[in-house]
Specification:
Layout lengths: L1 H14 L11 E6 L2 E11 L4 E6 L4 E5 L3 E3 L47 E2 L5 E2 L13
Antiparallel strand pairs: 1-2, 1-5, 2-3, 3-4, 6-7
């Protein structure tokens, strides 16, 4: 059994390569399904295999390094991260004073122009694509 494991590892390592490490505020593209589409800025390492990335629309994603590509694109619309992000999270049981933060209810926030989109239950603004609006997409 150990011999077959060693042989399998040897065969895998012949074609594998190590990925370049990411540093804070590096521009990355994230893979969704078969498409590399979302551009974001690398935020921090979550664990050995997962990384936290923030996108231009404000979304925060935890992804494996294999579905992230470092790019040279400019992500100037994403604000840079400060060094406090890199500090490890403190466990709640070690901290005697637990502060509960209130999460704003985005459902009550008005939409400025209702023709441009709608808000989801989580508060994310969804903008319709004009090309597919109404029955135009069936023509």
């Amino acid at each position: 059994m150990q011999k077959s494991k060693a042989q399998q590892k040897s065969n895998f390592d012949k074609t594998s390569r190590t990925l370049a490490p990411l540093s804070v505020n590096d521009s990355v593209r994230i893979k969704f399904g078969k498409i590399w589409k979302l551009e974001g800025s690398f935020m921090k390492v979550h664990s050995d295999r997962s990384y936290i990335v923030q996108t231009a629309d404000g979304g925060t994603y935890r992804r494996n390094r294999s579905v992230m590509h470092k790019t040279r694109e400019n992500t100037s619309d994403i604000k840079p991260f400060d060094a406090l992000v890199l500090q490890p999270d403190e466990p709640i049981h070690d901290n005697p004073q637990v502060v509960l933060l209130s999460i704003p209810d985005f459902r009550n926030y008005p939409i400025i122009n209702p023709d441009t989109g709608y808000r989801t239950r989580k508060g994310r603004l969804v903008i319709d694509i004009r090309k597919y609006a109404g029955n135009e997409w069936t023509k």
